Amino acid sequence: MDLSAIQTETARLISDVITQTGLKKGQIFVLGLSSSEVNGGVIGHNSSAEIGQVVVKAIYEAITAVGAHLAVQGCEHLNRALLVERDLADAKDLEIVSVIPQLHAGGSGQVAAYALFSDPVEVEHITAQAGLDIGDTSIGMHVKHVQIPIRPIIRELGGAHVTALKSRPKLIGGPRATYESVDTFREAGK
């Protein structure tokens, strides 16, 4: 696996996703990553710490440059808990759980984030405004309703299928209601 190519493609991918989601300062962005899938294998069976480091570093740098917060989803062995910075967990009063991610219990993305973050903690639940799923890890449970799928510029990273989500406020009130920026929501749904 060409790690330099993965880094370049990840940087290009996250730049596009940030633009398409309109991610803003203070918002939360969730990342689901299967390095096994990026590596051409099956999710959970061929984890690569090196791929995790390259991908997470590129995404972390882009997300923090915007002033947003990165939450990295763990694998099923950690019940899809999320690794975040303690200051975010404290500010949002998120429930912290006790576990340190490992390559095969948390995954390469969480292991990489654990090394990168200044004060990492695991939390049980989060509501993010947007997210990126590399390898079909099912991040939807962590993205605020109403979720809108976006089509990233890159549809595969290595061997992994790539999808992304953003959210918008619910349109309520029925046919008599008007919405301040309904055209923005309609455009996003195309």
From TrEMBL:
It comes from the Bacteria. InterPro entries: Antibiotic_NAT-like, DUF436. SUPFAM superfamilies: TTHA0583/YokD-like (SSF110710). Belongs to the UPF0340 family. This is UPF0340 protein Hs20B_05140. It comes from Pseudolactococcus insecticola.
